Amino acid sequence: MSATGLAGVAAAPLRVAIVAGEHSGDQLGAALIAALRERVPGVSCFGVAGPKMIAAGCEAYACADELAVMGLTEVLTHLPRLLRLRAALVRRFTAARPDVFVGIDSPEFNLRLARRLKSVGIRTVQYVSPQVWAWRQGRVRTIGAACDLVLCLLPFETEFYARHHVPAVFVGHPLADQIPLPVDRDAARRLLGLEGEAPVVALLPGSRLGEVSRLAAPFIAAAGRIAAQHPEVRFIAPMASTRTREAFERKIAQAHTAPVIRVLEGQAQQALAAADGAIVASGTATLETLLSGRPMVVAYRLSPVTAFLLKTMGLVKVRYFSQPNLLARRQLVPEFFQEQVTGAALGDALLREMGDPAHVRELLEQFHAVHRALRRGGASLAAQAIIELVRTAGALPAARDGDAHA
Predict the structure, then answer these.
(1) Do 114 and 41 have their domain in common?
(2) Residue 113 maps to which CATH number?
């Protein structure tokens, strides 16, 4: 950090070290920084950030995309680089002495970092619980040792942590606050230049390059299958970054019978609002699709070795993997895993989902109920919980945030 940066951190009434992984973490981090700044106008944030966090005022030591790695075996390829980054962050954060460290998602990276920082007296928060209730439940002990507080996005997660005596707070999901209930389809179509009543299908093959490389081909094939039966359908594919957009466009060029697919960079929420249905990679995008009130089909594909380990070692403890089904605790939307992920399966499933008006109405009722349950002012609750944690530690007396409000 530069001398100027150190001076800025030292002078701030609240110093927050943040490490956010990939696109979804950047969204959460930006909303959190804005909410912290409402309460503590002079807050200083620094760490690993994406473009939205940087725009919100976070000083970036590294880019959030550097943590966009998923799967058990996939991490091994990037391990040396990730270890170097974590060691550098330990040194910089220890020297800067922030009032609190907030790890946003990316638990494999952030929990180990949090444990090191906690050992030198820095308060630690994990924002977004790992799916510890779903697989490798023994990790809860690691989380308890590493974190002073876990901020949960889903309501049932706090029950799990309470059973294991780990402090946790349900704050709701910021996306539920950002996405209106209901969304304006016509306005979104005008924004994207998609006027007219012809059906629109959104393709969201993930925010990570690895996800896109595994899911692009079957998603494009699914679009081709839908187009063969319904030539009037239009396809849009919002991509999280330039790299993923380029990778997806290469797959389109390689496909034998690909329909016209309009590829967007960003604009995922607008694309979902404009769509009549979606084929979505498992992850935050499934929640965005639910909150947008759109029928969906969900796909999840890992490397063969990772998938084999998950199945044979009995690491998975839940029946479903998509957020809509986890939140409903039953199958609301079709899920396809690993070898089930084919163009035919995805395309046919989405046509069935979209083709039954009574089913679509029932889905909307369920989706709206989940939306209302998650709409709690998530970023504001998360900011308040972090401030209270710092106050409890005696690092933020009332005199230091006199402009703050509850």
Answers:
(1) yes
(2) 3.40.50.2000
Give the per-residue pLDDT at 78.
Answer: 66
Question: Residues 281-291: pLDDT tens digits?
Answer: 998 899 999 99
The pLDDT of residue 309 is 59
> By three-state DSSP, how is residue 352 classified?
helix
What is the pLDDT at residue 137?
Answer: 65
Q: 279: closest CA among 326, 329, 211, 328?
A: 211
Measured distance CA(169)–CA(264) in Å, rounded: 36
Residues 138 and 194 both lie in one domain? no
Distance CA 372, CA 177 (A): 9
Could you tell me if 341 and 382 lie in one domain?
no
Mark whether 387 and 316 lie in a shared domain: no
88, 38: one domain: yes
The pLDDT tens digits for 97-156 are 999 999 998 888 999 999 999 999 999 999 999 877 655 666 889 999 999 999 999 888
Range of the domain at 369: 178-374
Q: pTM (2 decimals)?
A: 0.76
Please check whether residues 221 and 327 belong to one and the same domain: yes
Distance CA 258, CA 87 (A): 45
Q: Judge whether 406 lies within some domain.
A: no
As a whole number of angstroms, the distance between CA 357 and CA 96 comes to 57
If asked whether residues 103 and 213 sit together in one domain, one would say: no
Contact 157, 129 (CB under 8 A): yes
Rounded CA-CA distance 406/40 in Å is 10
pLDDT of residue 65: 78
**Exposure string for 150-182, b = 16+ CB within 10 A, e = fewer:** bbbbbeebbebbeeeebebbbbbbbbbbebeee
Paired tokens of 370: 């989940």
Tell me, yes or no, whether 211 and 144 share the same domain: no
Mean pLDDT across the stretch 45-73?
84
Q: What is the total count of domains within the chain?
A: 2
Least confidently predicted of 5-19, 353-367, 374-388: 5-19
